[in-house]
Amino acid sequence: MIRINLLPHREEARRQRRQQFYVLAVATLIGGAVIALAVHSFNQSRIESQQADNDFLKSEIAKLDKDIAEIKRLKEQTQALLSRKQVIEQLQSHRAETVHIFNELAKLVPEGVFLKGIKQAGLKITLSGYTQSNARVSTLMRNLDASPVLERPVLIEIKAAELNKRRVSEFTLDIYVERAKSETDDKKPATPTEKKS
């Protein structure tokens, strides 16, 4: 009977399988490393791209914040200018008011009434003076009430006083400037009480 020794052949086959296993393992490791590196580089590029987008958005937000601050500053300046314009327009529209008031007072103060002081605070005017009789103060108040420039006369105080060794009455009254009337009302004819004064 012929005996064949297959041990070296089996040993060689094992060695070849081992080599194939090692080669396959190394190839798998290298493939896994290449895939991991590819995934890592892909993720890194996405992260860098996202970071670039974030930086761009931050820079644009910073620009918009500057624009918003500039718009807010311009709005404040516009509001300040509008306030100044309104004050100037108000002063412009009422610049002749003092002249009209003095003119009107000169027409309305009856004979026997002497004004010693005129104070204005806003629309309120305080008149103080002397009169020969209380009836003349009543006439003055009726004249003021009928005026197109002045309104709502209110007697604050009337008391006995002495002026140049003569007995008189000292009075204080408040009136208000009428601004709601149109300019055509200033030209209407004088009332009968105004003509008498």
UniProtKB/TrEMBL annotation:
Signal peptide span:
none
Coiled-coil boundaries: 47-91
Q: Which InterPro entries does this entry report, sorted A to Z?
A: Extracell_DNA_Util/SecSys_Comp, PilN
Residues annotated as transmembrane: 21-42
- Supply the alphabetized keyword list: Coiled coil, Membrane, Transmembrane, Transmembrane helix
Give the superkingdom in one word: Bacteria
| Entry's Gene Ontology BP terms | type IV pilus assembly; type IV pilus-dependent motility
Please name one Pfam family that this protein belongs to.
PilN
This chain's protein is named Type IV pilus assembly protein PilN
Task: Supply the source organism for this entry.
Answer: Niveibacterium umoris
